[in-house]
């Protein structure tokens, strides 16, 4: 009774009760939908990143970190609503996510409206840090240009003819546009581009058009594929026997489940964002050990990305000394931070995380159930001439 009276008297006298000192981080991600496997990896990685960066305390500057999960369902309108709910009703200080590029693009204006930081991870489309960008957006995930430049380095040799094949939405279109631009700086020739709806299951007509574009050309012939989620066309195109025309398939890195199909392609080259055996640093060593112990599997493609986002958030909060948005922006522009991939740097001009990429060649080991992306060469930050695409 005395406590209730004290609370009532405090309210009557116009004094505010002490607010919770928790730091609220909203993870707005595509927990359900076609990319839910990626989403689970991203969330697991985020929690591991927060744990690692805080030494297991989940505290920064003496305040407890609370993670609020929101399911954007791979739907742009839902993602927009969930982020508004996180910033408005839940009073989140920072948000992280989502997986799908289309969802991310719908969420960007919400961050600007609420004047709160959104760390985009792992959505890839260039436009996130390009024409759709605003100053509240930071991205730890690699963008389409980083994928494209690294794959152009891997494939862009003299005498190579390339046809590209991608999904007909933001991720695929942006990815091919960036690859086209990057390939223009190499001796290789881009012959044609093909796009298919994301739900395509019959690739026969697409395959025939691509084979016809390449079959009569001299030199090496490659079909470079950018694909996310289900219905990956690699095996189905290979079943059409492109080898009879001297055509080989090529693609970037992927999650371990997708890498199972890569066993059909020994020697295939490309460039990857992450494979757990490639980076050699203490953060990755910890991630691999802890992930094996807790989940019984190695960390995957997007686990490393989620961990990077968590580590970036903690480093920004430490450096800013508060959750004030302007203090965080000042702290994060040009900020260097550790990740399972090694050092990343938020570029001041567009807040894109600059990072190394990995040129690989697929190795097949009968004792491993997936094709192994064996490192050919690390492509360092200094060699990644990533265009600044925002207009602000």
Task: Characterize the structure shown.
By secondary structure, the chain is an alpha/beta fold. It has two domains: about 200 residues, Response regulator (Rossmann fold); about 150 residues, Rossmann fold (3-Layer(aba) Sandwich), CATH 3.40.50. The strands form four sheets. A six-stranded mixed beta sheet has the order 2-3-1-4-5-6, with helices on both faces. Strands 8-7-9-10 form a four-stranded parallel beta sheet, with helices on both faces. The N terminus is likely disordered.
Model regions low in confidence, pLDDT < 50 over at least 5 residues: 1-19
Q: What is the number of strand segments?
A: 16
CATH names the topology of the largest domain as Rossmann fold
Order of helices and strands: HEHEEHEHEEHEHEHEHEHEHHHEEEEE
**Assembly state:** single chain
The domain tally reads: 2
Helix fraction by DSSP (H/I, runs of at least 4): 25-40%
Largest sheet: 6 strands, mixed
Strand order of the largest sheet: 2-3-1-4-5-6
Strand % is 15-25%
The shape, in one word, is globular
CATH superfamily of the largest domain: Response regulator
Calculate Rg over CA atoms.
Answer: 22 Å
Question: What is the CA–CA distance across the termini?
Answer: 58 Å
Mean pLDDT: 92
């Amino acid at each position: 009774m005395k406590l209730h009276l004290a609370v009532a008297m405090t309210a009557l006298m116009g004094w505010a009760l002490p607010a919770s000192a928790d730091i609220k981080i909203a993870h707005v991600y595509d927990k359900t939908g076609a990319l839910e496997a990626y989403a689970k990896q991203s969330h697991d990685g985020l929690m591991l990143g927060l744990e690692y960066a805080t030494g297991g305390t989940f505290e920064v500057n003496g305040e407890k970190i609370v993670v609020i999960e929101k399911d954007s369902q791979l739907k742009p309108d839902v993602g927009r609503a969930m982020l508004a709910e996180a910033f408005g009703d839940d009073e989140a200080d920072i948000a992280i996510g989502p997986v799908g590029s289309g969802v991310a693009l719908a969420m960007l204006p919400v961050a600007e409206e609420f004047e709160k930081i959104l760390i985009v991870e792992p959505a890839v489309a260039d436009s996130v840090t390009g024409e759709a960008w605003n100053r509240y957006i930071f991205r730890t995930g690699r963008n389409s240009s980083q994928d494209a430049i690294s794959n152009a380095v891997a494939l862009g040799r003299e005498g190579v003819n390339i046809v590209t094949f991608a999904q007909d939405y933001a991720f695929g279109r942006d990815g091919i546009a960036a690859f086209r631009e990057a390939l223009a700086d190499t001796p290789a020739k881009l012959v044609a581009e093909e796009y298919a709806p994301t739900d395509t299951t019959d690739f026969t007509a697409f395959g025939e058009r691509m084979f016809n574009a390449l079959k009569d050309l001299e030199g090496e012939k490659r079909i470079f594929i950018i694909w996310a989620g289900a219905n990956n066309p690699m095996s189905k195109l290979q079943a059409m026997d492109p080898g009879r025309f001297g055509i080989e398939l090529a693609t970037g890195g992927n999650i371990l489940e997708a890498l199972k199909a890569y066993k059909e392609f020994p020697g295939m080259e490309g460039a990857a964002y992450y494979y757990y055996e490639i980076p050699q640093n203490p953060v990755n060593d910890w991630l691999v050990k802890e992930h094996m112990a807790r989940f019984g599997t190695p960390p995957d493609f997007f686990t490393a990305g989620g961990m990077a986002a968590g580590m970036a958030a903690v480093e920004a909060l430490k450096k800013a000394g508060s959750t004030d948005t302007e203090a965080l922006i000042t702290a994060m522009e040009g900020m260097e931070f550790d990740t399972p991939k090694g050092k990343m740097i938020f570029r001041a001009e567009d807040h894109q995380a600059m990072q190394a990429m990995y040129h690989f060649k697929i190795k097949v080991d009968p004792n491993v159930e997936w094709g192994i992306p064996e490192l050919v060469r690390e492509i360092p930050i200094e060699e990644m001439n990533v265009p600044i695409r925002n207009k602000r």
